[in-house]
Every structure is written in structure tokens, then in C-alpha cells.
Input
Amino acid sequence: MIVQFIFSSLSALGFAYIFNVRGKIAWAAALVGGIGWVIYLLSLKMGVSLGISFFIIGAATTFGSEMIARIFKTPVTSALIPTITPIVPGSGAYYTMFYLFNGQSELATQKAIDTFVMTGAMILGFLVVSDIFKLYTKYKTKRK
Output
């Protein structure tokens, strides 16, 4: 699990540099990306369903990205994009196409459904946490 944490953090760091995110923000995003992957591994070990685990991962990485944005006074997207790269279900899309082109429509359908569930749950996690932060910011601004 430690090796996977290191490599998922490095992949997040690599995408941070691809998207021109540098310095402390890139390293913080890499840490959050690695933590997101560890949460995914732990949820698999605990037997949590695929949709719930991706919801938790989406919420956790968005929370981490929102915290990075607040601490370093930067837009959330500059931290969010690198943090989600280790958990994006790219293999699901690949295998869906692979099974389609090889004439295995049942496997392609199952893989496509799994991919949509993972992606949708992850997006829901993003939305819930980012809306909570927006409501908090609105409340905080209104109080002053």
C-alpha cells in the first residue's frame, strides 16, 4: 500500500506539472492524490461498494483540494485536477472500448455501467463537498 501511495502521489505530481501547477501547491495536491488512492484501497478492503467508495474518494479529494485552495489562496481547480488523476476511471473506458471492438458486448456493457457508476459517484462527491464549502463561504461573508 505504501508503494501505491508513492506512485499515485507521483502521478498527481506529474499531472500538476503538466497543468503548470508548481511549488507547494503541486506537492500538496500530490499528497492529497496519494491519500485519495489509499482511501480507495482501504474501501476495497472493507468491502464497500464501488459507487460508495468513489463517492467517498471524490468527497475526500475535493475536501483536500478546497483546503489547499484556502491555505495557498489559489483557485480550487489548480489543486483539484492533479488530485483526481490517480482515481479517474480511465481503465474502465479503455476496457469498454476493448470489449466492444472484440465483439464481447456483454462484458463491454458491464464495464461501461461500472465506469458510469464510478464517474457519477465521484462527481457527486465533488458536488457535495464543493457546495458545502460555497455555503460556508457565503455564510461567512454574510456574517461580516
About this structure: Helices lie at 2-18, 23-45, 50-72, 76-84, 90-101, 105-143. The chain has a mean pLDDT of 94.
